[in-house]
Give the backbone structure.
Amino acid sequence: MTIHLSYSAEQRIATLTIDRPAQRNSLNTEALRALQAIAVELAAAQRCRAVIVTASGSQSFCAGAALDQLGSGELSSEQYADAMDVVAAIRQPTIALLNGNAYGGGAELALCCDYRIAAAPFQIVIPPAALGLCYPPRGLARYVARLGGSAARQLFLSAQPCPAEQLLRIGYLTHLVDASRLDAVAQQLAEQLCSLSPLAVRTMKEIFNLFEQPDLQQLQRAQQLAEQCNSGADLAEGLAAVAAKRPPVFSD
């Protein structure tokens, strides 16, 4: 399995672990299907009150969509967006325990969680602009809803690394702690959430998610713009450059 779920009914805390360290914990079609299946399993876990989302290794929390499958067409940006929507809709409060840096769609996976805990020198890099790719509009809408338009522009338009201190300032990180306390802080937060009314917490989370839903007409127009971008020559050049390990050369 590429993703594992461990759950103790006694502790009421579930831990979801991405286990593809050799691929920087990127998400291929198998992993995305596993994510969605786990979300269904969690919905049925009545005694579970909190979910910790983390990954194997210490170099990368998640590198987003598997670029080889994205380039071959086996994996589409819409499939990735569908999986992120499922993670965001997990009924229990979710905590991203960021054991390593996050890249591209991996940064959105963390943003889908209700809390994000990291230790310096954590950073995220969101590279679609360097690949000639328009990020899925549903994902862009999530960044605008949760962080605001200004912060979203900072993260997406430059394709530059964003360090932990800045991520804390813009609200992407909810906790920035010493590396030695990373696991303990996540566990303490999960235990605190477990002590609260599960009905009230679940209900308010669902309402927050409702308020964050993008306008359908705007989303349709955004999807048209994204499809125009992603059917152009820039994306093909960007993926070819990654495969050849060279800088891309984009046309005007």
Remarks:
- The chain has one domain: 3-179.
- The beta strands are 3-8, 13-18, 50-55, 60-62, 94-97, 101-103, 115-118, 123-125, 162-163, 175-176.
- DSSP finds twelve helices and ten strands in the chain.
